Amino acid sequence: MLDVLGLDPTGQLVYQSLIRQPGTSVESLATMTRLSPQQIQDSLDSLETLGLASRMPGLLARFTPAPPEVALETLIEQKESELRRARVAAAQISETYRRAASTRHPAELVEIITGREAVEQRAVQLMHGVQTELCGTDRPPHVGDPIRTNQTELVTLARGVTYRVIYDQATVEIPGWWTGHYESVAAAGEQARVMSGVPVKMFVADRRLALVAMQADGDTIEACVIVHPSELLDALCSLFEALWRQAVPISSDNGTPPTVAGHLVPTAFEATLVALLTAGLGDEAISRQTGLSYRTLQRRVRQMMDRLGARTRFQAGLRAAFHGWVQPPDLPD
């Protein structure tokens, strides 16, 4: 835990031993920790340099720890100061990079990235670097496991970044995708829509960088391009907005459809069921996503229809929309 302060595991062990028994000699510390006297001496030298320990007066070399609440807090403040200076330097470097990018040769506006690991690394870097909004279109194949929660996205959402993602229906139909991935990111604030035939797999960060998948080898992405500020990037942004207007909202924030005051409120399962039906999934695909058997799913659908007072699924869809269970797609301007 204290590695970030410059204290390695051996130093931490020696420091904790000093705290438990102040005024201890090198030999006693070696016995307590089962380390060699040389290891103890090296760690004590480091502790003294960091201001975490000092030698006591006297002929026998004995050492005492500095109070943790004072010494550790001082080191933490030093590290925080270093981080602040690093952020200032990073901002200056980024500004220099943006100015240089504006005068790039056309051949430098696009980077080609090859290799699955390199593609995944750049995708993670793009997500970590986004400041305000990330827009993406998603379709198979996937860089990571599509049924596992994207931890990088959760961290980014926690920073207040807006996520808008258009999923291809083929992604939504992957068994385990709904509970394994979507529910967690929806609860964290992702805005998601679905459509059939998503034409390209891409992510656009802050409208200043785009990652576009260019080559797929079986179930993995082996190459992509990074698009820098240019008319091509502007075109990709416009493409995303056009697709966003056409796509159907999967659900509202936190994975629960909105409700209208005084209208029927869906149960948690009904909210999930309506979202999956809205996404265009058939009964077998919904059965795989929810973990219910086909017959059990049919019974639950029938119960929802009865609750809505509907005799057909089409009528149930209309009544669900009336009660505010479904978000309508954007209307054309």
UniProtKB/TrEMBL annotation:
HTH luxR-type domain span: 263-320
SMART domains, sorted: HTH_LUXR (SM00421)
Lineage top rank: taxon: Bacteria
Signal sequence range: none
Transmembrane intervals: none
GO MF term list: DNA binding
GO biological process: regulation of DNA-templated transcription
Protein's recorded name: HTH luxR-type domain-containing protein
Lineage of origin: Bacteria, Bacillati, Actinomycetota, Actinomycetes, Pseudonocardiales
